[in-house]
Amino acid sequence: MKIGFEISRSASEQRSGSIENPAVPVSQTTEFMAYFGIGGANLPNVTIDSALTVPAALAAVAFLSRTMATVPLHAYRDTNDGPVKLTGKTAVTIHDAPNDLMGSFKFRQYFWQCVFTGGRGLAWIERNGSVIEALWPMDPRKVSIKRVGFKQVYKFDNKEYPAADVIDIPFMLKDDQVSHRGPIMMASKAIQLALAMNDYGSNFFAGGGVPPLALSGPLPQGAPAMQRAADDVDRAIKFAKDNKSPILPIPAGHELKAVGFDPQKGQMTDARLFQIQEIARAYQMPPVFLQDLSKGTFANVEQQDLHLVKHLISQWAKAFEDEANLKLFGRFKNGRYVEHNLDGLMRGDFKSRIEGIARAIQTAQITPNEGRALENRPKHKNPDADELLVQGATVVLGKQPLKPEPAKPSDDLDGDKNDDQA
To answer: What residues contact 308, with CB distance under 8 A and at least 6 apart?
Structure first.
């Protein structure tokens, strides 16, 4: 005996239909995932100009380029008396004005902007024999670089320049040691998300803070009637917004519901804050310099200030110094070199730095001439400047002077003698 139902298919029944929807084939993974809203996001395209519309990216590029342009840069020559600043055209070109059109700050700011946007800074060295006449910035977008054997050539404005005449600072080289990677392209996903949130926020508030809405209730039949109903609601919303009216009339028995996620539930504020931190990571910057003080305290902000100099500014300064020394003076530079003065950034002010040097001299840790060398100043001619000094009240243990004998009391206790003399 059988209990329940027995379902069977006759031998003549055939089914040849496919479970796949021809419009969305399961075999095509991209289309299949996109059918469920996964993948295929229509994010905005990232270019240098569009990336700079993100405040965090703009702040990073502007801050780093201006900081690198502000750090003092001098040319020196090693002598028996210590480093001495160069004079003449070389010193003027490096410290004052690289060419007739740009000062040092303007030239170096543009140079570092190219590094921190497209990923490469280039400058041509104009020479007159062995004399450096000028430095001219080159637009990296218009420069093509090719390497033949161990020689590298830069083609710019239909002219070819040897590598020995071009200062070249890449953000990150590729495996071929010719092409480069830029920070904006490498962080394009993070910047895309920031752009998308900017667009969403601007469109949301440009629409009066009204999100996409759905009208629910007894709706009219037919597509034309539905369109007329939607137009009526749209006009009512615009009328209320234009007249600053808090009341929006809708048909009886109907209800307006927001479509999509609430920005607060979607953690938009937290997400935008996280994008600032992501962009700071791309440049290895402490977030405090992008005005992110969400986790800032008095102590860690000061540490981030030191982190900036030790682990970021000093690295790029070293990269520029090595490249400039090689291209300006050659491998055998005869004691000539360029160098940034980063001491002013280590503690932020001149007073603290000088007090630290003075204390080191007074406690016999360095000589006065060694202290002068820290500021790239020449040695003093006084031979005592090469000796370790201590304060006058400091002596070796066991050699302190004997206490002086106490003064004898005066014989004239009443002071009569003074009166007689008066």
So the answer is: 285, 286, 289, 345
The per-residue DSSP string of 2-51 comes to --S------TT------SSBTTB-TT-HHHHHHHTT-S---PPP--HHHH
Contact 190, 282 (CB under 8 A): yes
Spatial distance between the Cα atoms of 225 and 237, rounded to a whole number of angstroms: 19
Domains and CATH numbers, the chain: 64-179 (3.40.140), 298-333+342-386 (no CATH)
The SS3 call for residue 144 is: strand
Amino acid at 197: M
Residues 32, 21: Cα–Cα separation, whole Å: 10
Q: What is the DSSP letter of 363?
A: B
For the chain, give the percent of residues with pLDDT over 90. 42
**Which helix (H) or strand (E) is 135 found in, with range?**
strand 131-138
d(CA 10, CA 82): 104
CA–CA separation, 61 vs 270, rounded Å? 23
Q: Identify the pLDDT of residue 4.
A: 46
Per-residue pLDDT of 281-329, as tens digits, reads 999 999 999 988 888 777 787 788 888 888 999 999 999 999 999 999 9
Rounded distance between C-alpha atoms, residue 76 and residue 328, angstroms: 13
Two tokens, residue 308: 């900036």
- Rounded-to-integer distance, Cα 328 and Cα 125, Å: 8
- What is the residue type of 360? A
d(CA 216, CA 31): 31
* CB within 8 Å of 201: residues ≥ 6 apart: 263, 268
Contact 89, 137 (CB under 8 A): no
Q: pLDDT tens digits for 271-280?
A: 889 999 999 9
Residues in the chain: 422
Flag whether the pTM goes above 0.70.
yes
Categorize the per-residue pLDDT at 34 as very low, low, confident or very high, splitting at 50, 70 and 90. low
List the structure tokens of 203: 């469109």
